[in-house]
Specification:
By secondary structure, this protein is of the alpha/beta class. The protein has one domain: TIM Barrel, CATH 3.20.20.70. 26% of the residues lie in helices and 18% in strands. The chain has nine helices and twelve strands. A twelve-stranded mixed β-sheet has the order 7-8-9-6-5-4-3-2-1-10-11-12. Helix 1 packs parallel to helix 2, helix 2 packs parallel to helix 3 and helix 3 packs parallel to helix 5. It is globular and about 55 Å long. The two termini are 30 Å apart. The relative contact order is 0.17. The mean pLDDT is 90.
């Protein structure tokens, strides 16, 4: 059994988020400029075989959980092939996916059959016209249909992520919370993170998690919830009495959780970022393509993982948009 991975501050690192593409079929207000970004050349992207090779080495060191992100990961063809590769890696215990849900509805079953265990669905509104306005795309999409597709595929837990933006979608907080009264879904309200070129959304648009919970509690009293299904993330969970689902808040702006950070990120072109909003990153792709082992590079990078991000000072480690690293 591999020893526990620890960074320079003694935090256990067991979780990696792997971006499989920098492209997305949405242009969400808080995530990507409306005109998009300059996409990575195909030759710079990690192949599925390269991703599996990197994860195989990292699993030997102690990485146990993998989340596939983008951009939007479902737009990369045959993603189930990669999921199958990862599922066969000794030591990997959990494979999850973060998706906007649009293409996922038709792909949930193949992904589950390949080894996907759980899914997070981004859903910033339950109203069709508002979904189009936030995504800045002429789409006809029902996030509830995506959650039901995940249920039919046997994925669990199912989490619905809502980025709360004052004056844009915060009037739907109660509507999202009520979903947990009828479904065993986990609705998580995420504080807006003003990033890079997307600073038209500012502190004025941030709805603090304490305010979110006050609005949720107006629906019905909330109880603290600590459950095994909540996974690797930083959310704090609550539940309505007798409800099958739960309500979480993720608080990067008002209550930072850097002291318990357990994750690193691999970009679509193979750069390891040890902090979402840190400037430190190293290439794992380049040594891999030279035929070298990436484990020593990874361990060295882990020693430089910063104690905390600098997002509150609006320093984002060179990120132009969250879509570049999958959040």
């Amino acid at each position: 059994m591999a020893p526990e991975l620890r960074d320079g501050f003694g935090r256990r690192i067991s979780y990696i988020r792997v971006s499989v593409t920098d492209k997305c079929n949405f242009r969400c207000l808080y995530c990507m400029p409306q005109e998009g970004l300059q996409w990575l050349p195909r030759s710079e992207l990690l192949t599925y075989e390269e991703i599996a090779a990197i994860l195989g080495e990292l699993a030997q060191l102690g990485i146990r959980s993998v989340r596939l992100t983008g951009g939007e990961p479902t737009i990369r063809p045959q993603l189930e092939t990669l999921i199958g590769f990862i599922a066969r890696i000794d030591g990997i215990e959990d494979i999850a996916l973060s998706t906007n849900g649009l293409l996922f509805i038709d792909r949930a079953k193949p992904y589950a059959a390949a080894g996907l265990r759980r899914v997070n669905i981004s859903a910033d509104s339950l109203r069709s016209e508002r979904i189009r306005a936030i995504a800045r795309r002429e789409i006809h999409f029902d996030p509830i249909a995506a959650a039901r597709a995940a249920e039919r595929a046997g994925l669990s837990p199912i989490k619905i992520n809502v980025v709360v933006m004052r004056g844009i979608n915060d009037d739907e907080i109660a509507d999202f919370a009520r979903l947990t009264l009828d479904h065993s879904w986990h609705v998580r309200f995420i504080e807006l993170m003003p990033v890079g070129d997307l600073r038209d959304l500012t502190w004025e648009h941030v709805v603090p998690s304490d305010e979110v919970l006050e609005r949720v509690a107006a629906v019905a009293p909330l109880l603290p919830d600590i459950g095994p299904s909540h996974g690797n993330g930083p959310a704090r969970y609550h539940r309505f009495a007798g409800a099958p689902g739960s309500i979480g808040v993720i608080t990067p702006m008002t209550h930072t959780y850097c002291d318990s950070c357990n994750r690193v990120r691999l970009t679509a072109d193979g750069r390891l970022r040890t902090c979402l909003f840190g400037s430190h990153e190293v290439s794992l792709r380049d040594p891999l393509r030279r035929g070298e082992r990436v484990g020593p590079v990874f361990l060295s990078a882990l020693e430089s993982k910063p104690r905390a991000h600098e997002l509150l000072e609006l320093r984002t480690g060179g990120l132009l948009a969250l879509s570049q690293v999958g959040g």
